[in-house]
Sequence to fold (493 residues):
Amino acid sequence: MLNLFTQAHSLPNKTAIIDPSGSFTFQQLTESSDQVASVLLQGKSDLNQSRVAFMVSPGFDYVKTQWGIWKAGGIAVPLCITYPLPSLTYVLEDTKAEILIVGPEYEEILKEYAVEKGIRMLTLQDLKQSISKNSFPKISKDRGAMILYTSGTTSLPKGVLTTHSNIESQISTLVEAWKWSSDDHTICLLPLHHVHGIINVVSSALWSGASVQFLHPFSAKEVFEVFQESKVNVFMAVPTIYFKLISEFESYSKEAQNQLRECMKQFRLMVSGSAALPVSVMEKWKEISGHYLLERYGMTEIGMAISNPYEGPRKAGYIGKPLPGVSVRLVDEQNNLIDSGQAGEIQIKGDSVFKEYWGKPEATVKSFTKDGWFKTGDIAKVEDEYYRILGRDSVDIIKSGGYKISALEIEEILRKHPAIKDCGVVGIPDEEWGELVSAALVTLEEVDIKALNHWMREQMPAYKTPRKYIILEDLPRNAMGKVVKNDLKKLFS
Ligand code: MLC
Ligand code: AMP
Fold:
């Protein structure tokens, strides 16, 4: 049995999940995920790492599906629920998914495609069919468990394959470092196709026998309403969410603010990550909630690697120290250790580091040093033992709202538009979003930006689409004719 399921067996009557459809115990989660696994197996002994994609809204159905896939021996491929069809089919084709599970809201989007491609599509209703319970395969920990898509310096997102052992290591380090326990109650607001929501919030809580309350879609007002029920004591979010919560808080009367302050004082832990936390947001949040946010650093390929301490000083502007079981080093461009106090690339080793980029052996080899360190592409310094992120080695990677976005992927789509001759995409600093995706266009004819935006959103998720546009005669280039992205960034200010 996977360690993730241990507490579910020891605490059957405890509440595991609360979502808009109700409250569910660990016993219900165990039984429902067993049922999902039996339907998936259809009498077979093992899915043998077949990819099972699922497009299910955050909540009990999402978790029972994910657990059911793992129990049946499949590799779970969570699909982003706001992806338009082309982004979905990219993932389904890249993973060669054999089974697709869809929530009722998403049936229509995928039905025709699944029929055409002969993918076995199951609805949530199908997962409830009466079927005799299968026996489940024994899963060795080095088998593939999950594929998550992440953008990088190539135009198309890459699938990150983690094994059960990687996932267990990613969860257990956080449970230990942040002292998760079965007394905890957390709220999940984050999308469930990325590690932040899947590993740090949902899996760490359930591993510990804690309760997870789902709120979807994100609404600052509803988050505060849940806070006022006085059950939540652990909260994790990206900086943009803290920014939005602060704006909401500031719109309330003094009395309502004071009530909320009292509720938030009772929390055990509040964490920020996925993007740099502006010091101004950290200070403001301390003022309204009484909590110094614990900032930590992670990546899809490695889970969490560096964290401010649970006990001990949390430093604004710093990501902290290596987590238990994670080895971290800083190196120069030749992978030589840098002198202390100098800036270098963060490289990571440990059981939490992913197995491979799915179907991309060359990219996998390129992302590791010869002696097995994973190259993050993030540049940092150590000051008084605390790591501080200085930036990234590629200007083509943008972080907006906590999402990692490839400038190259957006450029490739923009260039397909008949009125666009050339383009350059960059991230412009923004207090709320971290960076704003911004596009400079060289056009062949007049372009209606509203219509262009609409067209873009049919091809890629809204969070990847440009928020600012400028039209240029030509893009800034160096003597070799290459676009100089840093010069381009200046043109937006
Ligand atoms: C949305 N909007 C944006 C935007 N995204 N504007 C600028 N930049 C962006 N990136 C606008 C929309 O157009 C809309 O405006 C309004 O914001 C609301 O849109 P929405 O889609 O409803 O946004 P919202 O639900 O408010 O989303 C904000 C958010 C979301 C912060 C909740 O972005 C989010 O969940 N981010 C978390 C991503 C995450 O989990 N990353 C972790 C990756 S793992 P209008 O005018 O049209 O109404 C990782 C590793 C690690 O990074 O270390 O954790
Ligand atoms: P993703 O590929 O979506 O998992 O994003 C991982 C990237 O998010 C890292 O490589 C960092 O660039 C960034 N990141 C995560 N946490 C932090 C943080 N606390 N501060 C700055 N950047 C962060």
